[in-house]
Amino acid sequence: MALLNDVARVYASSIFEIAKEKNIISQVEEDLRVVAQILAEEADFKSYIYAPGITIEAKKSLMNKVFAGKISENTLDLLDLLIDNDRQDSISGIYEAFVKLDDEHNNRERITVISQASLEESLIASIKSQIGEKLKKEIIVTEKVDESILGGIIIKIGDLVIDGSLSKGLKNIKSNLLNSKVRSEVAYED
Question: 165 in helix, strand or coil?
């Protein structure tokens, strides 16, 4: 998996530099998102593109039929290059790495806010503001609902997890109670 991530980062870095020179970063990012999404959702298409028995030319031809006129020539050229090098399985990783490069370039940070129910816009705005102030970055929030956390919120910023959920608090209380050793005779002394 690490090799795949390294490969994805190399391709993403190259296409990012080209997109930056041509001032088409957002277009290429959207192109990569669309291609990655189709590969994730269309099992038959994915199987065909990944199949070792299908010729390179047949795979390129299908990619061009599906995406010509819908994505930029630069992205189509990247898809052809990936197929030539048998790296089409890197497309979703390239998209993720490209987004990270774009975020770094634009001083943005993506965070995930998990709560028991949808949060009010004012609370999301407050979270964005406070975290943005601390990190000195523009914050992009992805909100997820997880009914199992009972209450509170969990915020994920990269590898950092801030768990302010009620379920986490209850687990901590339970753990503390189970770990505390009180001798019964001490507890009932007069």
Answer: strand
- 68: which 2 tokens? 């010509």
pLDDT category at 185 given cuts 50, 70, 90 is very low
H-type alpha helices, the chain? 2-22, 25-41, 43-50, 56-67, 73-84, 91-105, 121-135, 166-179, 184-187
pLDDT digits over 14-23, tens only? Answer: 999 999 999 9
Tell me the per-residue pLDDT of 77-131, one tens digit each, with 9 for 90 and over: 999 999 999 999 999 999 999 999 999 999 999 999 998 889 899 999 999 999 9
- Beta pairing, strands 138-145 & 152-157: unpaired
Q: In what order do the strands lie in the sheet with 160-165?
A: 138-145, 108-115, 152-157, 160-165
The pair phi, psi for residue 107, each rounded to 5°, is 55, 50
Query: How many angstroms separate the CA atoms of 64 and 52, rounded?
Result: 19
- 82 burial (CB, 10 Å; 0-12 / 13-18 / 19+) is buried
The pTM of this model reads: 0.75
Domains of the chain, earliest start first:
2-103 (1.10.520.20), 107-179 (no CATH)
Q: Which residues pair with 65 in a beta bridge?
A: none
